[in-house]
Amino acid sequence: MKNPHCMRCGTKLEARDVDDEGVARERMVCPACGWIHYDNPTPVVAAIVEHRGEIVLVRQPGWPEKFFGLVTGFLEKDEHPDEAVLREVKEELGLDGVVQSFVGHYPFAMRNELLIAYHVRAEGEITLGAELEAFKRILPEKLRPWPLGTGFAVRDWLASRAASIQG
Length: 167
Known about the structure:
This protein has helices spanning 81-93, 151-166, and strands at residues 14-20, 23-29, 36-37, 42-51, 54-59, 71-74, 96-108, 113-123, 134-138. By secondary structure, it is an alpha+beta fold.
């Protein structure tokens, strides 16, 4: 939690069990006024970007040199996730995209986010946005999921792709 103080009165919050529809859940509670901080996850969109028959993976500054992931970004106020994922593809890669399918939604507890993943087909020339350091291309057949975050979306997309090819 970034701000361990009450948003109403400024008192330091304390961890307490709170009855949430008959279930006790630990929440940060203000001992002075009773305000409860729920710490809900932030919605984040993720794109499995297909460009010229390959999947485009990206690396953000500060990531290990060999680590690449999906294009991701925060969902803005009043924005539909379909629109947000296309905006992120445009901002981060300079590509125009079309949503091909919704892949799934995934809790990412490490960052307190809810990932909303899509398969996006994109066209144009790649131009890295300010938030990215590098990109690489990989054939879908060589793509392997990783064991956290957006890696679960890659796993599910690969499984649905294999099922559609077989059947």
